[in-house]
Structures are given as C-alpha cells and as structure tokens.
Amino acid sequence: MTTKPYAIECVNIKKAFGSVDALKGVSMFAKPGEVTAIIGDNGAGKSTLIKCISGVYNSDEGEIKINGEVVEFVNPEESRSFGIETVYQTLSLIEDLSIWQNLFLNREITKGFGPFKILNKSKMKEEATKMLKNLDVYIPSIKSRTRRLSGGQRQAVAICRAAGWGSSVVIMDEPTAALGVRETAKVEDLIKRMKAQGLAILLISHNFDQVLRLSDQIWVMRQGDVMAGLRSKDTSGDELVALITGAKSGKG
Amino acid sequence: MKLNRFAKVALVAVASSSLVIAGTTTSNAATKKLKSIRVAAVVKGLDNPFFIGIKEGIEETALKYGVYANVQAAPGLNDDIGQANKLDSLAGQNYDCYIVIPISSNNLSQAIGKITKKKKTVINIDSPVDAASLKAAGGKITSFAGTDNFEAGKAGGAKMVAAIGAGKKIGLIAGLAGNVTSAARVDGFKAGAVGATFVGPVNADWDTTKALDAANAMITANKDLAGFFAANDQMAQGVGKAIKAAGLKIPVYGVDGIADALNEVKAGSITATISQYPYVMGQMGVEACIIAAQGGKVPAQTITPYYIIDSANITAALTNKSTRGYFPNQTPPGAYTNPYTKLIKKN
Amino acid sequence: MKKISRKSTAPSSEGAVDINFLSRVRSKIQDPFFWSDWLVVVAFVFVIAFFGAIAPAEFLTLWNLNNILVAASIPAIIAVGQTFTVLTAGIDLSVSSTMTFGAVTFGLAFTNGWPLLQCVLFGTIAGTFVGLLNGLIIAKRKINDFIVTLGMLSVASGAALVLSDGKPRQVISESLATLAIGDKANIPYLMMVAFVIVVVAHFVLFHTRFGTHVFAVGGDPESARAMGISVVKIKIAVYVISGALAGFAATLAISRIGSAEPAANTSILLNSVAAVVLGGVSLFGGRGTIFGPFIAALLLQSLSNGLTVIGVAAYYQYLSIGLVVILSAALVRTDK
C-alpha cells in the first residue's frame, strides 16, 4: 500500500437530488494496473458515483483523491485534466465524423498561430493510427465515417480515445452490453491490454461472469451505499447476487 | 419596299407631331412588321390583383395587335433584386422593347442601363423609375404611362364639394404613414375640395377595420361631418360601415375601383370610388412599344385614366367586360385619352 | 464484382492500384451520402445542358451566363451563412430581414456622409448583432431556433422600418456601381466577392477546430458536450456568422438596386434554404459542404434565368422551381 498510491480514491462521497439521497457516503478506491468493477442493482448509485468522479456532478460532501492527492473539479473538462476519462454507454462518437476526427475531437492538433490556426490533419491521422495500433485495435480505415463501424469497432474506438491522452483512470459504463459474443471477447481483450499498460479501469457491468473474468477488485453498491469491497478471486457469483439483493450484508 | 417604309415613317412622323402631348423622343429602331415585334415586360409580384390587371392588359393588347409579349414578374412583391435579375435575363434576349414597373424607384435602373446600351426601348408604366439613379446607370426611358394620384384625388374633392356644398367639414382617412401614394391622393383631394374644412388625415394603414375605428372616432368627435374621403377602397368600406352604424347619410369616396367597392357603390354603402385602370396601363405600355418599334415618335409621358364611379355610371362599369375579377371594369365607362393607339400603323 | 476478381489476378502492381481504385469507386457509389454530395453538381450540369440545348443562342451567351453569376452572388453568400446554422441542425429564418436591417443601417451611414468602407462595416455589424441576438436566445435560453428566428424575421424588418421611417434611401456611389456591373475576365466582381466568401467558409469549416466542432454539435450535441465542446458557444457562433454574412450581403444588394430598401425580401430566405437542401446539407445537422449550397445557388438562378429566357410564363416558373426543390430534396434524402 505504501509503495503505490491508489489511482483514485473516494472518501465518504455524498450526493442528494432534492430529498433523494443518491449517494450516502461512498468510499472506494481503484489501483493502477487493475480492473475495478462497480456492481449493483438499478438505482444503487453506480451511475451517480461515476458521474461524480468524471465531474458531471459535483458531490455534496466527501473528497476524491488522485494518486493520493485531494483534487477538486466542477466539470468534465477539469476531471479530464486530472487524467480521468469516461466511456459512456452512448460512446459519445459523432457518427458523421471520421474515426480520426472522433479520436481527436476537441483535442485537435493545429498548426499556425492565433486566429490562423489550422488543423494538422496528417499529424492527427498519423497519431490516430498509432493510438489504435497501441491497443492492437484493427479498423480498416481511420478515414471512414464512424457510422460505418460495427458496434464492437465503435466501442474499441471510444475506448482507445479514452485510453489515449495520457489518462490514468478510464471509466467504462457497460462496455459490452450491446455487443455479440465475438465482439465482447475482443473488447475484453482490449481492456486487458489497457490494464497491462498500467491504467486503472473502473468497470460498470451487470454481467457477473464478465466482472469475475476481468476484474481484480469489486465494489458492490446498494441503495446509495457500498455494501462490500471484495477481491475478485475470493468471491463468487452467488455471493455477489446475495450482496446486491441485500440477502447478505457485506458490512456486518 | 424601301420607298414604302420611308413613306410610312414620314407619315407617322407628321401624324404624331400634332398629337404628342409633352416632349417626345424618337426610337432608333426601324419600322417593323407587327408580327415581328417582340415585347418583354417585367411587372411587380403577381400576388397583387392590380398587377394581374396590368399583365392582362399587356397580354390581351399584344394578342390584339399580333405582337409577341412575354410578361414576367418579380418572384415576390418585395423581391427587388429578383425583379432586377428577371430584367437582366430578358435584356440579353431578342426583344424590341421592355415594359417595366419597378418595385422600388431604383431597383431596375442598372438593368435598364444595360438595355439602353443595347439600343433597345424601355417603356415605364405605373411606378416611375427614379431619374437620378437612371442617369447614374446610363439608362433611358422612352415613355412613361402612369396614374396621377394627386389629380385623381383632386377630381374626387371637386365632385364631393359639388355634391355637399362648400364650407362643409370632411373627414380624411389616409394609408400608411409616409406613403407617397396615400399622401398624393389626400393632398389632391384637399386641393380639389375648394372651401371645405378637414378633419384628419388619420392613418388607417390601408386597412378596413382600422378605417372603421378611425371613422367612428372622427364621427363621435365631429357631429357635423358632411363627408369622408379614404385613400383606398378597403378603407372606404370600413368608413361606410361606420357611417351606417352611426345612422348618418353622408358620402364616402374611395380610390382604386376594386370589385368589392364597385358592388358597394351599387348597394349604396360607398358613394363613389375613383377608379384606376391597370388594364389600360398595360395596354398603353404595349402600344408605346409598338410605336417605338415602328420607328414612330412616342409620347414621353401619359397620365393613365381615372374615373369617378358612382350611382350614375355604376351599371355601365359593372357590365364593362368583366374579365378582371378584382378589377372588373377594365376600361373607363366614358371617354378618356389614349395618345398611343392613334400612332400605331396596322401592317 | 467479377471484374474486380479478374483484376485481382493481374500480377502487375498497376493492377493492385486499379483494384483499390475500383473498390473505392464502388464503395463511394454505394454510399447514399455520395449522391447527396454530388446530386447538385449533376443537376447543375443537367440544367445548363437542358437550356443550352433548347435555347443555345439565348442561354449560352456570355452576357446571359454573366447575368446568372451576378444573380447568384447574393443568394450564394446568404446560403453560406444558412449552411452554418443548418449544419448545427438549426435554421435562420431571419436572414432576409437581417439583410434588410443591414441595408438600412448602411443607408443611414451613407446619408450621414460616412466613407463607403465604414458603411459596409456598419451594415455588417448590424447584421452580426441580429445574429448574435438569435444565437444568444437560441443557445442560452434554449428556445426553438425556428420560433426565435421567425420572430427575429419580424423584429429585424420592424427595426429596419423604424430606422428608415419606411423610406428607401438612395445610395449612389461610383464604386458600388462598378462593383455591381463590373467584371474581370467575364467573371462579375459580385461573384468574385461571393466566391471569396465561399472559399473562406470552406476553409473555416474543414480546416479549423471550430469547423470540426460545428459538425460535431450538429451531428450529436450530447456527444459533443460529453467531449467538452461548448455547444452553446458553437450555436451562438453559427448564428453570428449567418447574421454577419446577411449584413455584408446588404452591401451587394445596395450596389445592385442603388438604394437601401426598408422592405424585407423574403425570397432571399426561401432561396437560401432551398440552396442548402439542394446542396446536400442535412437538415438534421452534422453533414454537408459549402460548395454544395454554392452550386445549388448557381443552379437555382440558372433555372430561374433559363425559364425566363425560354419564355415560360411567370406562374409556371414558381411551380417548376418549387417542384425542382422538392424533387431534389426527396432525392438527397438522408434519413438515418
């Protein structure tokens, strides 16, 4: 523990929407080079938690530490500047832009000065090819429109975009929910490669098999609270179900 | 053949010199057979019945003489540039003469300049082209035929005073504030109604309902009103309703001669309308074109007829070849001067 | 299909290039968007060929082609501005009265004896201001663009009438007259001005970050926002561009008609929307070019000119131009 700080740590995060307490004091952490899963039933607070981490929501109480240091951010841009990237279920890809344009969206490389800055397209295409190659993602042409990609390819592009940019934490919301068996396997391989490169990955998934297969650490949430933090290798699907439904109390 | 043409030109020159009103201009074009004369016209938007009347005047007159006429309109009532584009498109084509009604006083000047450079004739009807901008663009108008709104109003004023007697109070309803046509009609009326006193003018924006409200207010404030003048027929209709509601029996005059107004003159709810004749304007435009193409001298300026339609001549006006719809009486029910017709040679 | 497999057996490296080319052509042709991008060019060539065939002596004269270029210059500029708003899935219905407002402010400056360039600037700034208002209300207050710009259509023309007291102001200037009727190598000055704007707009759209963000916001505002793009700023910017171009186009309009007219010219609006649709810009946003609407503006003016030249009666012209717009829109349909 002393050698390596957590990539991200949440301490007693609280968030209420009006009279509804969405998060009632959540504490959790994720280590670099590990896949950390967050599971729970619908309405357990998973989405609210990752939106607090990614800066979409501002928490009412508690603190977030990155690499051991307390940070504060009020919007996704600031969260991103601390190396936290999120791949939402919607992927946030612009269908009619090319793959390289999506990979560099709002981070376009330009040349020139002041008002005469123009896009450095060749450089972006070159870098885009590298980004994909780095994670062994094969896409026929980075110039084709994102519209033409399959579901798995899109997921891969969105993940590559999040993993690029020197990020340290990548949050993924149901990355394989819409995919077939083969494409799911490919995306899982991609996640493993990212893990091998030392990224901390926060994974939200309903698929317990996948969670057990991929993750190193699991946080179980229920009604805005963390019920348990478990090492994946020490648990089972049955135990997870029991924790989620409340049949077993993790804190007790 | 050659001699024949010479003789004709000479004849026309002699004949026309005695008939011409004001200054004249001679067209450069040589005498042409009627059948070979080609006329192009660019009128205002055809979403206005007045300009449909003009269009039909042009087309039917062309048909009558056997000349070819192509009537084009601005894509919309206010599309000044679109109208200039139309005239530009036609200017390069094989026409002898162009009839124009500019949407604004300037918008066709440059296009006319181009036509003048090609030594073709331009006849301006209805709304005049601004002289300064025309000069700047190097354009020339051979003849202008249009209404004199001041004179039309003046005739109405004289008629009303003759009917109600001098020294009476007359209410005036004008169109949009600052509108030139409205001002000319109202000023003309005041000039014609010698010895009368006036209430207003109140601007009712050419609108029937607004005129009704304005007339109501004027009647309430002036019990001794002896008559009304409205600068167009729609407003006269409103005034007529106000007079009826107040239980008065005083005359109201409108201007234009639209179908509704003629019917109301017949019914007695409007006393008279000072009628305009868009059809005649179109006719004069074509006739001026023909004269120019035949090499004749074209009268430089002609005032198109206006006619006071009241109970005395309403039947004649309504039975007058009703092809216009909105403007049913296409030509005046009495005599009027057309200086052009006589100058045309039938060949 | 067969052709390609036969080619692939060819040993030469030239063959390989061919396959690449052929498959590229094939995938292009199968892409429905390829057609929406190129339809306008095909239609334009067709219209020119059609009128050229029936009336070569009238339509295909230098004089007449010059007329078409002059007539298309103002619609082209307005269409460029409209393209920006439509690319963000918006629309600017106020362009015609924005132009009128720009013209009236230009006229005021001119009658007060300002130098010409300052008048141009003043008119452009007035248009920019109208665009800024549109953008702020649409983007900040999140009110429907259709309603806001429809309201602004009335507001701007009302403002123009108030400022001018409903009266046109004559603008007689040697330089403006030269601009309106002059040409170099048979290209009218007006069209040169329009073309410069088209090229600059193309550059901005395809070679700057702003341009990419316009496409992103139009294609998928949620995703654009998630990637940290300010949807509000981009939306404001496109209406500012549309307003500024309308205000600038007022200069060209004044040069052509010799006066600053206070009455709004609504056919400018219809023309710009038609050009944008014909030019293959998706009304759902996120897809389109600048050259498409530019060629569409040329196409629409050629059509109107051609019909006039061959003597088609005015009533039928409205009919045929409307039909062409609807037909083309049906052909370039790009629903997802």
Lay out the secondary structure:
The complex is a heterotrimer of chains A (252), B (347) and C (336).
Chain A: E1 8-17, E2 20-30, E3 35-40, H1 46-53, E4 61-66, E5 69-71, H2 76-81, E6 84-87, H3 99-103, E7 110-111, E8 118-119, H4 121-134, H5 151-163, E9 169-173, H6 181-196, E10 200-204, H7 208-214, E11 217-222, E12 225-231, H8 237-245
Parallel strand pairs in A: 3-10, 3-11, 6-9, 9-10
Antiparallel strand pairs in A: 1-2, 1-4, 4-5, 7-8, 11-12
Chain B: H1 2-19, E1 24-26, E2 38-43, H2 49-65, E3 68-73, H3 80-91, E4 97-100, H4 109-117, E5 121-125, H5 131-136, E6 143-146, H6 149-164, E7 169-174, H7 180-192, E8 197-203, H8 208-221, E9 225-230, H9 233-245, E10 252-256, H10 259-267, E11 272-276, H11 278-293, E12 297-299, E13 301-303, E14 306-309, H12 314-319
Parallel strand pairs in B: 2-3, 2-4, 4-5, 5-6, 6-13, 7-8, 7-9, 9-10, 10-11
Antiparallel strand pairs in B: 1-12, 11-14
Chain C: H1 2-8, H2 13-30, H3 32-54, H4 56-59, H5 62-87, H6 95-111, H7 116-140, H8 145-164, E1 169-170, H9 174-181, E2 183-184, E3 187-188, H10 189-207, H11 209-219, H12 221-226, H13 231-257, E4 259-260, H14 267-278, H15 291-309, H16 314-331
Antiparallel strand pairs in C: 1-4, 2-3
Helix pairs in contact in C: 3-15, 5-10, 5-13, 5-14, 5-15, 6-7, 6-8, 6-13, 7-8, 7-13, 9-13, 10-11, 11-13, 14-15
Keywords:
heterotrimer, A: alpha/beta, Rossmann fold, 8 helices, 12 strands, 31% helix, globular, B: 347 residues, alpha/beta, 2 domains, six-stranded parallel beta sheet, six-stranded mixed beta sheet, 12 helices, elongated, disordered N terminus
